[in-house]
Amino acid sequence: MDHIADDCVSCGICVKECSFLQEYGSPKDLAENWRSGQNQGGKLFPFECSLCGLCLGVCPKKLDPSAMFLTMRRELMAGGQGILRQHKTIRSYEKRGSSPLFSFYYFPEGCTTVLFPGCAFPGTRPDTLLHLYQHLQSSIPNLGIVMDCCTKPSHDLGDSAHFTKMFSQLCRILDSNSVTRVLVTCPNCHRIFKEYGQGIGVESVYEVMPGGDGLPVTTETEVTVHDPCGVRFASSVQDGARELLQQQGVRIREMEHNRQKTFCCGEGGAAGFIRPDFAKSWTDKRVREAKSNLIISYCAGCTQFLGEAANCHHLLDFLFFSQRVMEGRHKVSRAPFTYWNRFRLKQKLRKMCCAGRCGTRNQMAG
Fold this sequence. Notes:
The protein is an alpha/beta fold. The chain is 48% helix and 11% strand. The protein has a six-stranded mixed beta sheet with strand order 5-4-2-3-1-10, sandwiched between helices. The radius of gyration is 20 Å and the shape is globular.
């Protein structure tokens, strides 16, 4: 926080890009006010930031105001002011993700790599996940699978104690079962494992998926790509997603804000629970830049948010079920059916297990 107060020159570049900063002021002013105690006990504005990191992406001095707002959230949480009723839904969603009902761990013999699809992907598109798992097994025969939550919601809400407890337990389970590499579909999971993985390597499936003949042939078409803000600075993930599309003959028209300067879809940082107008402003900006192009993203959350306002599909749906997607016949589940899908998928995976260890998070931790 001090370095923002001392080094930010209030050039206005980040403010121009962000509705949140346009309302509250430059990062320098916000840092100085917070440091002087003017905001202690007042408006809980840090929870209105999407934590998307665009401010860092455009800052000429490479300052990271979004990290400062996360620090502010942590301070509010530590002071007992960060538990907000508006976050009850996202906290409950996170809790279910690691519960015995929905969590599932499978480590086949010789397993050192697992597929970690996150919370949203298995529930919204279980068939796509099964196709992905089988596709990856063609090049990684001893691939395991872990359905659990990385606890990023608690991380972003500033609840460091709960996040550290839960994610550390997850990493201990993986380590005790000889897992050294995690393959993720979710960009947010990628970021969490990258920053806190305790020596466990992480890659996105988009970096390691066999392409070409291993996927259905896609009819030639033009799309635009939405890069999720969780991998804003992960160029290898961004490249992998584009290469998979290009290998199938797809043309890509890039939006003005892409890769390091990508816009948030509106879901980021749970800001929408406090300021839905800010969340909608991000969605609207992204849809305007996409124009009439089919939007392809590689985040289940981004796909859902943008799909409310535009023709947006997940990359993996597009790769495995391209014809259905192009014809508008591909269906994605929504709550509460997502929970039923996760439970059924868990049961199906359990039956698929041959040799190895399997169980819930509680069973593996115990």
